[in-house]
UniProtKB/TrEMBL annotation:
<keyword id="KW-0812">Transmembrane</keyword>
<feature type="transmembrane region" description="Helical">
    <location>
        <begin position="148"/>
        <end position="168"/>
    </location>
</feature>
<feature type="transmembrane region" description="Helical">
    <location>
        <begin position="175"/>
        <end position="196"/>
    </location>
</feature>
<dbReference type="Pfam" id="PF12730">
    <property type="entry name" value="ABC2_membrane_4"/>
</dbReference>
<keyword id="KW-0472">Membrane</keyword>
<feature type="transmembrane region" description="Helical">
    <location>
        <begin position="98"/>
        <end position="128"/>
    </location>
</feature>
<feature type="transmembrane region" description="Helical">
    <location>
        <begin position="15"/>
        <end position="34"/>
    </location>
</feature>
<feature type="transmembrane region" description="Helical">
    <location>
        <begin position="54"/>
        <end position="77"/>
    </location>
</feature>
<protein>
    <submittedName>
        <fullName>ABC transporter permease</fullName>
    </submittedName>
</protein>
<keyword id="KW-1133">Transmembrane helix</keyword>
<feature type="transmembrane region" description="Helical">
    <location>
        <begin position="202"/>
        <end position="220"/>
    </location>
</feature>
Length: 228
């Protein structure tokens, strides 16, 4: 835990928090815009409350999986590339523990960010829906409880998925490869059609999360062999 606190202070999370807030506002604004436009034309943007939750979750996970890759690039890959991690390797701390702390920060922040963003954006959107009635039907406590469980499960899956790019980034200590691979993953899992998203199939994000954990383990295991 001390290592995690030290790393958090070193990375100065202000830039990350600002980025998250801006991203949330953009997602919220985009959802409101398409919903209002559809209503103005006499249509509906979402056929049901469940579909609205599905689309909100897909947007949030797509954006913050990439944010997670940026965290990995900043915390791990760039330090190898710039050789600043050599200084930390001179500390009386195991390389494996150091890398574990960095990846726990990346995965943990991504999980918390996705879960809170999903909750806040959904709350804001459904509050607007109570005024403008974009979506037919009623938001019941049963729907809310079901979606809350899904949010937690998919947030975990997305947090694990955000670790997958470390496999590509560590090969040549490439920041672009880390971020581009996350964008490719997001494009593959975020395709949607009315009422359906590939990422809504729980086995897909959980399987990718398993890959992310395996790749993280491989990076940690090889930490003592890696030269910056």
């Amino acid at each position: 835990m001390n290592l995690i606190r030290i790393e958090l202070r070193k990375m100065k999370v202000g830039w990350y928090v600002r980025g998250v807030l801006i991203a949330n506002l953009i997602i919220m604004g985009f959802l409101w815009l398409i919903s209002y436009s559809e209503k103005a034309e006499g249509g509906v943007s979402f056929q049901s409350m469940e579909e609205a939750f599905l689309i909100i979750g897909t947007f949030v996970r797509a954006v913050f999986i990439v944010f997670g890759a940026v965290l990995i690039a900043k915390l791990v890959i760039s330090e190898y590339k710039n050789k600043t991690i050599l200084v930390m390797f001179t500390y009386p701390i195991s390389r494996k523990k150091l890398l574990t702390a960095k990846l726990m920060i990346a995965g943990g922040l991504t999980f918390i960010t996705i879960l809170l963003s999903n909750i806040l954006i959904a709350a804001g959107f459904f509050w607007l829906n109570s005024i403008y009635h974009f979506i037919p039907g009623e938001l019941t406590s049963e729907i809310i409880s079901q979606q809350a469980i899904k949010m937690a499960v998919f947030a975990f899956g997305a947090a694990g998925t955000s670790l997958v790019p470390i496999f590509f980034g560590m090969r040549k200590h490439s920041v672009p490869a880390t971020i581009i691979s996350s964008v490719v993953i997001v494009m593959l899992i975020s395709s949607t059609s009315p009422g359906f998203s590939i990422s809504s199939v729980v086995y897909i994000p959980l399987s990718l999360a398993a890959f992310g954990l395996v790749f993280s383990y491989m990076a940690i295991r090889n930490a003592d062999k890696q030269d910056a």
